[in-house]
Amino acid sequence: MVRLARTGVCRELGARYPIFDFSHPPDVIVSLADAGGLGVLGLACELPEGIPVIIAEARQRLAGEPYSIDLMLPAGVP
């Protein structure tokens, strides 16, 4: 039986295993959350009006599982 250490970052972020992935669209982060890891939803290339829609889809599909968002905003964006 393989035993993975439950690291401090796992405890802090709510993941069961120290497996992290950066992806877009939400399908991969949902699958990773189902497997016990933590997905990072990449939204750097999205138009501002599409971001709330993608986040809402991810949040609904994750049903309370933890996830993260990677978002880059150019200088001057409110």
What is the number of strand segments? Answer: 3
Strand content: 15-25%
Give unreliable regions as ranges. none
Oligomer: single chain
Structural class by sheet pairing and helices: alpha/beta
Strand order of the largest sheet: 1-2-3
Q: SSE layout and pairings?
A:
Blueprint: H1 8-13, E1 20-23, H2 26-35, E2 38-42, H3 51-62, E3 67-70
What's this, in brief?
By secondary structure, this protein is α/β, with parallel strands linked by helices.
Note down, in words, how this protein is organized.
This protein has 78 residues and is α/β, with parallel strands linked by helices. It has a domain at 20-70. 36% of the residues lie in helices and 17% in strands. Strands 1-2-3 form a three-stranded parallel β-sheet, with helices on one face. Strand 2 (38-42), helix 3 (51-62) and strand 3 form a beta-alpha-beta unit. Helix 2 runs parallel beside helix 3. It is globular, with a radius of gyration of 14 Å. The mean pLDDT is 84.
